[in-house]
From TrEMBL:
Signal sequence bounds: none
Keywords: Glycoprotein, Repeat, Signal
One Pfam family named in its UniProt record: NHL
Lineage of the organism: Bacteria, Pseudomonadati, Pseudomonadota, Alphaproteobacteria, Hyphomicrobiales
Keyword Cytoplasm included in the entry's annotation: no
Record PANTHER family: BLL1368 PROTEIN, PEPTIDYL-GLYCINE ALPHA-AMIDATING MONOOXYGENASE
Species the sequence originates in: Bradyrhizobium denitrificans
Name this protein carries in UniProt: NHL repeat-containing protein
Length: 323
């Protein structure tokens, strides 16, 4: 049994949690979300883009085949509608839990010009304001956050390339809280930036390493889980204590606990490959989607990729233990 965390935040890694039909594979799990019934949605880059499990890891259903080009971000609203961000065709689709498309923002297969600031060029994630407005982080081919009405009308945008406050170097993930603040994972600037609902810069959280995944745990409680990628350059590839890992913070960005990452990436229980999506259920258990397939050649340039990375290793469950 592998235990991670410190203090009041102790977790047991549930080995081989997800149970797939024979012959199925998850591949990269780009993002995850939990609904009101504690069902886990795994938005992945395999043949079945949305795979749904119960909280014990039993397979329930799948959908999205032929709809999505490249899974990237997933969030969920109070009615269990899912906001699926596809950076491969530059869209956000709002879907029912059964996969019916209710709204599409963006034009499929028609990216905005690179770094133009116009939506979208490889958008990455979404978050909702307390009144249901939609924030979209955009992303790889832009350095921008866009705000939309609930029915998909653009209200405003902010951000530009750079490293100053309000600028971004891969705006990779986004979250909100009950007070309307917007939290942006500015990945390659190694920080989380915090804005008000209109894009006014408030503050930033530092002492992070390539923050990639971001989860607001409880809309009012204001605790956050941040998934950090490990080193990405040959010169620092084997440096310890840089991740990949999870960091838990309070509302000010002060670290409460850190899970893993001391000895770099790995397939061993209790280690991570590339945390890319995070969700938490009603019991405080954490689900981690990882892009280990995409990241393998970066982290392990001289090692063939084991089959388990493709089949099931990119989805992990961390069970919250009593304090």
């Amino acid at each position: 049994m592998s235990i991670l965390g410190t203090g009041d935040y102790i977790y047991r890694v549930v080995k081989d949690w997800a149970k797939l039909p024979d012959g199925w594979a998850l591949s990269d799990v780009a993002s995850v979300a939990v609904d009101s019934k504690d069902r886990l949605y795994a938005f992945n880059r395999g043949a079945h883009p949305m795979i749904v499990f119960d909280r014990d890891g039993n397979f329930l259903t799948s959908w999205g085949e032929g709809l999505f080009r490249r899974a990237h971000g997933l969030s969920i609203d109070a009615d269990d509608n899912l906001y699926c961000t596809d950076d491969g065709d530059h869209t956000v689709r709002k879907c029912t839990p059964e996969g019916k498309v209710l709204l599409t923002i963006g034009l499929p297969e028609r990216p905005a010009p690179f770094m133009s600031g116009e939506p979208f060029n490889r958008c990455t994630h979404t978050a909702l304001s307390p009144s249901g407005e939609i924030y979209v982080s955009d992303g790889y081919g832009n350095a921008r956050v866009h705000k939309y009405t609930p029915d998909g009308r653009l209200i405003r945008s902010w951000g530009e390339p750079g490293s100053d406050p309000g600028q971004f170097n891969i705006v990779h993930n986004i979250a909100t809280d009950a007070d309307g603040f917007v939290y942006v994972a500015d990945r390659e600037n190694h920080r989380i930036q915090v804005f008000d609902g209109n894009g006014r810069y408030e503050t930033q959280w530092n002492n992070l390493h390539r923050p990639c995944a971001l989860c607001a745990c409880g809309f009012r409680r204001k605790t956050f889980i941040i998934g950090e990628l490990g080193p990405g350059m040959p010169v620092n590839l084997n440096v310890p204590n840089l991740g990949p890992r999870l960091t838990i913070t309070d509302a000010s960005g002060t670290r409460i606990a850190r899970l893993g990452g001391e000895h770099g990436p790995g397939l061993e229980t209790g280690r991570f490959l590339a945390p890319h999506g995070l969700a938490i259920d009603s019991r405080g258990d954490i689900y981690v989607g990882e892009v280990g397939v995409t990241n393998w050649s970066t982290s392990f340039p001289d090692r063939p990729m084991p089959a388990e990375v493709q089949t099931h290793r990119c989805l992990q469950k961390l069970q919250r233990m009593p304090a």
